[in-house]
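Students often ask what a 'structure token' actually looks like in practice. Rather than answer in the abstract, let us consider D-aminoacyl-tRNA deacylase, a protein of 149 residues. Its sequence is given first.
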Amino acid sequence: MRAIVQKVKKASVKVSDKLISEIGEGLLVFVAVTDSDTKKDIDYIKKKIEKLRIFEDDQGKMNLSVEDEGGELLIVSQFTLYGDARKGNRPSFINSSSADKAEEYYEILINELKDDGFSVKSGKFQTHMEVSLINDGPVTIQLDSERLY
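Now compare that with the structural description of the same chain:
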């Protein structure tokens, strides 16, 4: 499972020009699933989202998590995180999981974050979305449950 985590002042998702989700300060998280993912991969990404210390403390150091800050989460499915463009100019997406598995894991992640007490909004799975954000910092972190980076 992969995720791109962006610290934001605000973020939103539109589908067909209609606003479907919006958050204030917190994290915008793009998530992708691969066929080899298991529940352990969801757990790893969930914990990282909750505990990643990328918010500034009183001394201006990145020392606080979204949990510490009480920030909101906007979770958006993005299968293209498994795009492979090493050969040619057209990315291959063979490492992205099937839509059924991806949607199941995406929903599990969202529900578990909610169960942990977070304010969670989401995009609309397998839909063309317009995502807007104000990246704070900018701060963008890549996560990979296989720990490739």
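One point worth highlighting: Residues 2-144 form a domain with the D-tyrosyl-trna(Tyr) Deacylase; Chain: A; fold (CATH 3.50.80.10). Ask yourself how you might have guessed this from the sequence alone, and why that guess would often be unreliable.
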